[in-house]
Amino acid sequence: MKAPTEIAGCGAANSRPVVVHVLHRFDTGGLENGVVNLINHMPAFRHVVVAVTEITAFKERVKAPGTQFIALQKPPGQGFWLYPRFYKLLRELRPDIVHTRNLGAMEFQWPAWAAGVPLRIHSEHGWDVNDLGGVSRVNQRLRRIYGVGTHRFVALSQVIEGYLTGPVGFPPDRVLRICNGVDTKRFVPADVVPEHWPYRRQQHVVIGAVGRMQAVKDPLNLVDAFLRLRELCPGDWQRLRLVMLGGGPLLDAARERLSQAGAAGQSWLPGDRSDIPDLLPQFDIFALPSQAEGISNTLLEAMACGCAPVVTDVGGNAELVEQGVNGLLVPSQDSATLAAALARLVCEPELRARLASASLARVRAQFSLDGMVAAYAALYTGLTTADEA
């Protein structure tokens, strides 16, 4: 490994390897949350977060001392003109590892290669918003081109692993699957109700969701499914509540649809929240209506909090939820089927409790944060050893 280096703003040089994490945008999201978890739990490395576009206040979730944040402010389009700037940055930082994530940052593998970064890793977290299912041959070709010279590719789900080794065509021995992990010490079932929580246990049944209010997350599908419960569960309707945590372009549309249906008083859509670990345990049912997912951080967090999941059968969701064992799977973009699954858990509290208990056990046994961190640490140090040999 190279001699110790000094990162501007990080104080004196030390011997910890430097990892540069490159993302399209550092803002609220599952991918970004996974990076935060990794940084906060890998003190053996020093971390630099580079956003191709911008860095938001989301960076405050990073608690690791000395972490540096850099925004390249790239406008829409190909980022070739930013390569010299990124190359110069890498020559100054002299990182041991550059780790890009998703297609929006993958092209920066090229300047990382040119800068002589010893270890170059790329992760794929899920489908691109404009290419659900990964069917675009242009995107497949771009990944092949940008991936030339990359040492290792990380897939966060079996579906993405098959995509990288299949249509994209990377050799299987260069692709490694590492699922997201959840901090089961931070996300836990809780008996204490937060003061700011608007509903009461025993009196209400809460159907909740957490995620950015954008088209790929399909929040309006969940709104429509919730409204259908008026007919499906007439005896329970008055005690049903819908909570949707997260901001985004469809937030106002979701609020308006609920208001027009006369259900505004039975819903709480407060936008982005920083107290998700306190609020998630208050959900009875966790709903994930997405059209596409990798390995969903919010689903793992809800499972760790003891919620019963109802999720769309897309991406890596079926790797986390086994139908009828620890949750229910439904087709995407089908509010009627989603409503029927929600109604089943509303009307069958024993089933709801069993699925919640099974989800809690599954996440603790198979998707711990410690396991995820250990896998990345082995990847980083294993590649370093191989590279030096």
What does this structure look like?
By secondary structure, the protein is of the alpha/beta class. It folds into two domains: 18-181 and 369-388, Glycogen Phosphorylase B (Rossmann fold, 3-Layer(aba) Sandwich); 205-366, Rossmann fold. Helices cover 36% and strands 16% of the residues. The chain has 14 helices and 13 strands. The strands form two sheets. The chain has a seven-stranded parallel β-sheet. The chain has a six-stranded parallel β-sheet with strand order 10-9-8-11-12-13, sandwiched between helices. The N and C termini lie close together (10 Å). Residues 1-13 and 384-389 have low confidence and may be disordered.
Cα gyration radius (Å): 22 Å
Contiguous helical run count:
14
Strand content: 15-25%
Strand order of the largest sheet: 3-2-1-4-5-6-7
Would you tell me which CATH topology of the largest domain applies?
Rossmann fold
Terminal Cα span: 10 Å
Query: Which segments are poorly predicted (pLDDT under 50) over 5 or more consecutive residues?
Result: 1-13, 384-389
Q: Work out the number of β strands.
A: 13
State the helicity in percent bands: 25-40%
**Overall pLDDT metric:** 91
Domain count, please report it: 2
Give me the CATH superfamily of the largest domain: Glycogen Phosphorylase B
